[in-house]
Each structure stands twice: as structure tokens, then as C-alpha cells.
Amino acid sequence: xxxxxDRDAPEGLxxxxxxxxxxxxxxxxxAVHGHPIHAMSVAFPIALSFCLLGADLLYWWTGDAFWxxxxxxxxxxxxxxxxLAAFSGTAExxxxxxxxxxxxxxxxxxxxxxxxxxxxxxxxxxxxxFETAVLPYGLLLSGLGAVMVGFTGWHGGKLVFDYRLxxxxxN
Length: 171
Hints:
- By secondary structure, this protein is mostly helical.
- It has helices spanning about 5-10, 35-40, 45-60, 65-95, 95-100, 105-125, 130-160; strands at about 30, 35.
């Protein structure tokens, strides 16, 4: 069986990472009935990060305190769900050798930790005075968070859809 990396390499060259033991081991170890927990749990912080930006923009546009309060809840809930997703993602990274040896997995992890730092600081910024926190720094943090979600999600999607990392092989 020929791996994609072997087909793309010039003749006579081999990928030293692909030659490591356990490189082909990419099946999830953190799953419920074969459903990977990390892949399921990342939807919430992604959606809440975009809701946070939307709520900030709506507060800026309308001045209605409801949107500032909604942004506070989106920031906090996004951060907490992001922490849960981070636990399962870190477990996958450390327990599955085929994930751990790939640089792209570490890049995704670094982006994800940075996103969590942005979400956590955004939430902390809003805890005492959610209306005054929106402009300008809350909105700037929300925009940065949305950009970080793009980078993190793109790398995570590439790992799952292109490399089939952290998925279940099934029967």
C-alpha cells in the first residue's frame, strides 16, 4: 500500500516522519461509540466566537444593553466550551502517536491555545461592566477571536479531512 506522502515524493526520497513507528496510527482514542469527542465539541466555541462578534457589532449599531449582555454570555460560554474541547484535543495529541508526530497537529494546537487566551481575556474584560467593555477593546478582541477561529478551524479541518487524523475507522 502506497501512502500519499510516498507518491508525492521524488523517487528515492522518503519522508522521515512517515517512517517513524506509529505514523499510520491516527484513530481517535477519546470517543463515545466511535464518535470523536474533540470533533464534536469544537462546534460550540466556534459558533459562540462568531456570536460574540455579532453581538458586539449589534450593540455598537443599536446601543441596546441586551447585546452587550449576550456578548458577555457568548464570551464566557465560548471560553468554557473551548476548554472542554481543548482537554479532548490535548488528550488526542498526547495519546495518539500518528497525530503527535505531525507538525500540523502542533500548529493547530498552538492556534487553539491562542484562541482560548483571546476568548478568556475577552470574557474577563467584560465581567465587571459588560456595556462599557464592548467599545473599543471588546469589539477588537471579538474580531481577533473570529480571525483566530478561522486559522484554528482551517488547520483542524485540514487535519481531519485531508489527513484523517482523530477520526474513527469504524467497522
